[in-house]
Amino acid sequence: MIMSFLVVFFCFHSIAEMPPDSRHPVKLSQEQAAHQLAKMRTYLEIMADISDALKDKNFSTIESRSEKLVTLTQPRSSCGKETEQVKAFMQMGASLNQNARELLNSARTKHFENVLVSYSTTLRTCVACHSSYRQDIGGGKLSWPTKKK
Ligand code: HEC
């Protein structure tokens, strides 16, 4: 009883302490948003599989899982008319693809140090995008407010 009170107290306390969400909203339809999250969950699963494989230095698993990540993060061709913010978001996705490629190459050459470095660079790209962007369901296309508050 006391324990559950404490859990509830700490949960609400930490929510109250959270700063307001100042990440750029990525406007998406319900369907696009669900699709994006499903893809993201696959990314996380791949990263977890790779971290399991790291402890055994299982290069073949690291190779096949990073190859999958490279395929899934293949950048879409741009129409050239995107706003600067949309381009920045797409660039972040392209960096993920690039870093996954480096991870794949390191796994192929079985260079463990390089695998560790490129795994962490890849993971940092996930972190960087999540610190800057959030989903905003409602619109049908990517857009951001043009003026800063
Ligand atoms: C180009 C930007 C970008 C990159 C790079 C990126 N994500 Fe995401 N991810 C997002 C956005 C946007 C959301 C939605 C977050 C929100 O609305 O709070 C998200 C959500 C998620 C979620 C939540 C899924 C759910 O069902 O709620 C997971 C897990 C996730 N990402 C994992 C990853 C992993 C792992 C990587 C790196 C391998 C990664 N993401 C790289 C943009 C990105």
Number of domains: 1
Task: Give me the CATH superfamily.
Answer: Cytochrome c/b562
Q: Give, in order, the helices and strands.
A: HEHHHHE
Strand content: 5-15%
Which ranges are low-confidence, i.e. pLDDT below 50, for 5 or more consecutive residues? none
The radius of gyration computed from the alpha-carbon positions, rounded to a whole number of angstroms, is: 19 Å
- Strand arrangement in the largest pleated sheet: 1-2
Question: Structural class of the secondary elements?
Answer: mainly alpha
Q: Sheet bearing the most strands, described? A: 2 strands, parallel
Could you tell me the number of beta strands? 2
Q: Could you name the CATH class?
A: Mainly Alpha
- Give the CATH architecture: Up-down Bundle
What small molecules does this complex bind? heme C
> pLDDT average, as an integer?
87
Q: Count every helix, treating DSSP H or I runs of 4 or more residues as helices.
A: 5
Measured distance between first and last alpha carbons = 44 Å
Helix content: 55-70%
CATH fold-level label? Four Helix Bundle (Hemerythrin (Met), subunit A)
**Bulk shape:** globular
